[in-house]
Design goal:
The structure holds two protein chains of two kinds. By secondary structure, chain A is of the alpha/beta class. Helices cover 39% and strands 28% of the residues of chain A. In chain B, the strands form two sheets. Chain B has a two-stranded antiparallel sheet. Chain B has a two-stranded antiparallel sheet with strand order 2-3. In chain B, helix 5 runs parallel beside helix 12. The chains are: A alpha/beta, B mainly alpha.
Chain lengths: 241, 481
């Protein structure tokens, strides 16, 4: 049995008067990619932000690598080896691509071989190395955001909707990039709305609805079970009607 | 002609792309057409000098607001504190009287001759370091690995730059006139040793952004050997009292410690200020205004308790009073010096903001504080660093301003606060470059209007701010687009 790198136990999160997470129980196995699916407003982004400490859990525990990180601050949690790629990409538009990468290299300087590996996966970053990040296209910004999270080895990367607003060709490139990432030791917890993308890459899956995990298991099981897909993901369509 | 070239020649586009230069040119031309040329030169230098002093005072406030969203109305009190610290050192050094009670109680009263000597020596050293450092960093190639010198020509350039540094120290310090040959030897050795340190640091920094390990290579070891020899020679002779002439460098030997102590002293005050006053009110602008205004009264009160309610004279040393003349154009010496010092500070701040990791973090933090935290940085530590640096700059600016006014009193900083707020609004909140241009514009306009339309001079800065805000509400050179 694969041991858990990250577990959330009965995690509740309140944002002002709104009760967003209603007791999340989630286990992220070590290694591979775990997909977090669910409709808009289900609490996927809130889950990621609570793990990273950007929002504080009002109840419950977040255990990372056998350590309770519930009460730690975001910088402390990040330093334990968690990288974050937010939904809005979070790149610094007034800094160059190089400077964006430098900020992420907390140890001081960027590891040259690791940087070379990243620039091979995302060649556009090499082309625009000394350009202001604000001048990049959406797809290039997303690549920068992901590369920035990977410039130093991390135990866990939290990624929030990496394919949002991207063209199909870029999404294909993303699939290739994450397949490369799978060959390293990095564990990924990824929020996604694109089921094709999720099923292409995910090893494990958890589905959130109304602030609770309603399903979790192997991605292959969910991909093979169309009835289950319809039942879980049909929630998406109902909520939009 | 391509569209890009057409755009560059389009005046409207140029003005919108470079509003700060446009405004500077407009103000300079206003003065040129309204004032006789020789007077215009005098007033322009005066205005630029005044502007630079305002820039030094205002730079801290704009950084604090830009990064931390903190409106510190106690900034004026920090300026006043700097002026008092500076005045204490300057008057103490100048007359050999040591007004600090603790030292007086310990009967530490070095003679004024020795103090002037130390001051002159340290100033010469700083001057020499700047010259060698600039030469070495400009001429050495960035491909030097690990701080070692791979090419013979680099060693030659390093050697030459240190000779130039030694020569400048020898000339400026007045040692060349002393007729005492060991002093010339000391000058050369000290300059060489100090220049090596600077060159080593510069080369290493350029090579891989961090210092190489000490004694990492043969050339490093030889450098260290020379540094050690030079330092030993210097320390033997430092306490000896030379017969200094009252030349420029000796006079600077009063000012430089004064400014440095104002910088460090108010930096410490700034740390206490941040922990006690600012930390509890992050994110609440209304509380910040109340609390910082209250802190201003407290600091002003404490200054009165220690230094008394009367004004303290802060007279300029002999070589810095009066002006330099060229034909019928005369230029005030002190304002020229203030302009140069301000420019050096701007250059250093710019280099830190644009080329160091801390600077990158500050710029990133201005844009997206949360992401900086998510990347593992304790943004609050950055806040403290920026606030303390801003306070230190305010202190130094206060010392410079006090010296310019000739007299230091408790209201000094509060008088400047309104002007400083105008400057950072004109320039763009959070922008160092914007702060510089805003300060220069305010300084120039103020000096021109005093000559041309004295009644307008009183509110010329406010008028300038209104015009700029109507045209560009974000300021002339804002940080955020």
């Amino acid at each position: 049995m694969t041991c858990a790198l990250l577990s959330l136990r009965d995690v509740h999160t309140h944002i002002e008067q709104y009760h967003i997470l209603h007791g999340i129980d989630l286990t992220v196995p070590r290694g591979g990619i775990t997909m977090l699916l669910g409709r808009n407003g289900a609490g996927k982004t809130t889950t990621l932000r609570t793990i990273l400490g950007l929002w504080k859990a009002s109840r419950g525990n977040v255990i990372f690598d056998s350590r309770d990180i519930t009460k730690l601050s975001a910088p402390q949690i990040a330093r334990l080896g968690i990288g974050y790629v937010p939904e809005d990409m979070g790149i610094f538009a007034l800094l160059t691509v190089r400077e964006n990468m430098e900020v992420a290299a907390r140890s001081g300087s960027m590891n040259e071989s690791r940087l070379e590996w990243l620039l091979e996966i995302f060649p556009a970053l090499k082309k625009f190395w000394n350009t202001m990040a604000g001048g990049l296209s959406g797809g290039q910004r997303q690549m920068l955001s992901i590369a920035r999270a990977l410039i130093e080895p991390r135990k866990l990367i939290l990624i929030d909707e990496p394919t949002k607003g991207l063209a199909p060709a870029i999404i294909q490139h993303m699939i290739y990039a994450f397949q490369q990432l799978k060959q390293t030791d990095t564990t990924v917890l990824m929020v996604e709305q694109n089921f094709y993308f999720a099923s292409s890459l995910g090893d494990y899956v958890a589905v959130i609805d109304d602030g609770k995990v309603v399903y979790d298991g192997k991605m292959t099981d969910l991909s093979a079970n169309e009835a289950l897909q319809t039942k879980l993901l049909k929630l998406n369509f109902d909520s939009h009607q | 002609m391509g569209s890009k070239e057409k755009k560059l020649l389009n005046p409207v586009h140029l003005i919108n792309a470079y509003p700060q230069y446009f405004m500077l040119v407009v103000v300079l031309l206003v003065g040129l057409f309204g004032i006789p040329f020789s007077t215009w030169v005098t007033l322009t230098v005066a205005g630029l000098g005044m502007g630079m002093m305002i820039f030094v005072m205002a730079s801290g406030m704009t950084l604090t607001f830009g990064l931390m969203d903190v409106l510190n109305l106690g900034h004026g009190a920090l300026i006043t504190a700097g002026a008092f610290f500076g005045a204490t050192v300057v008057t103490g050094l100048g007359t050999g009287r040591w007004p600090i009670k603790l030292l007086a109680g310990l009967h530490v009263r070095p003679s004024s001759q020795t103090l002037w000597g130390i001051g002159a020596f340290s100033t010469s050293l700083v001057l020499m370091l700047i010259i060698s450092g600039i030469l070495a960093s400009k001429m050495l190639r960035a491909d030097t690995k690990q701080g070692a010198f791979n090419h013979p020509y680099q060693l030659l350039i390093l050697f030459l730059s240190n000779i130039v540094g030694a020569a400048s120290l020898w000339v400026f310090s007045g040692w060349s006139k002393s007729g005492f040959w060991p002093s010339e030897l000391i000058a050369a050795l000290t300059a060489f040793a100090a220049g090596l340190i600077v060159s080593w640091l510069t080369v290493a920094y350029r090579a891989n952004r961090s210092l190489p390990p000490l004694c990492g290579s043969a050339s490093n070891q030889s450098q260290l050997g020379l540094i050690g020899a030079g330092t030993a020679v210097v320390s033997i002779f430092t306490l000896h009292s030379w017969d200094w002439s009252h030349n420029f460098v000796a006079n600077m030997g009063i000012l430089v410690p004064g400014f440095l102590i104002a910088f460090i002293g108010v930096g410490i005050v700034g740390y206490v200020f941040e922990r006690l006053i600012i930390k509890p009110v992050y994110g609440d602008s209304f509380k910040q205004i109340l609390v910082t205004v209250g802190a201003m009264y407290i600091i002003d009160g404490l200054l009165k308790v220690y230094w008394g309610p009367d004004q303290i004279p802060m007279s300029r040393p002999s070589t810095l009073t009066g002006g330099l003349s060229l034909g019928n154009i005369s230029v005030e010496k002190y304002r020229l010096l203030a302009g140069v010092i301000g420019l050096i500070i701007y250059w250093i701040l710019n280099a830190i903001i644009n080329r160091t990791k801390v600077g990158i973090l500050i710029r990133a933090g201005v844009e997206n504080t949360e992401m900086v935290e998510a990347l593992g940085y304790r943004i609050k530590l950055l806040y403290v660093t920026v606030f303390v640096s801003g306070a230190a700059l305010a202190g130094m600016g206060g010392a410079m301003w006090g010296l310019y006014q000739g007299v230091v009193s408790v209201g000094l900083g509060s008088e400047m606060l309104v002007l400083i707020i105008i400057v950072i609004i004109i320039g763009g909140m959070g922008s160092i470059a914007g702060c510089l241009y805003g300060a220069l514009l305010v300084g120039l306009l103020n000096n021109y209007m005093i000559y041309m339309l004295p009644k307008v001079a009183l509110f010329s800065s406010v008028l300038l701010m209104v015009i700029v805000l109507m045209w560009r509400p974000q300021g002339l050179k804002p940080l955020m687009k």
